[in-house]
Design goal:
single chain, globular, 4 helices, Arc Repressor Mutant, subunit A, 2 domains, mainly alpha
Length: about 110
């Protein structure tokens, strides 16, 4: 990876904000003072690394750019299980962080 002026933590939290928000990526990029294309690239890299389908010009694709319109039930179940596992891990991390910071303020 190239030397970046953004930390990995900032990039990851920015990507999570895009994925979990109803706001447009362009608006989030503006709010974070990040180039819009840069944020789009971060999200695309994240989705590719975690095997999450990517919308590209109205077509659902996998990280390798192939159309994924004919996903079988087994493939969908496998993808959803992996995504569910990732979301549970993220939830658990947030729970621990919340407990840590709540304990610190008492």
């Amino acid at each position: 990876m190239k030397n970046s002026k953004y930390t990995r933590e900032f990039r990851d939290s920015s990507v999570q904000l895009v994925i979990n928000s109803d706001e447009s990526t362009a608006k989030i990029a503006k709010d974070l003072d990040v180039n819009e294309k840069t944020l789009y690239n971060w999200v695309r890299e994240y989705k590719k690394a975690n095997n999450i389908p990517i919308m590209s010009r109205g077509y659902l694709t996998t990280g390798n750019g192939k159309n994924n319109n004919k996903e079988t039930v087994e493939e969908e179940a496998k993808r959803l299980r992996a995504e569910n596992k990732l979301l549970k891990q993220e939830r658990d991390i947030l729970k621990k962080a919340t407990a840590y910071f709540a304990k610190e303020t008492l």
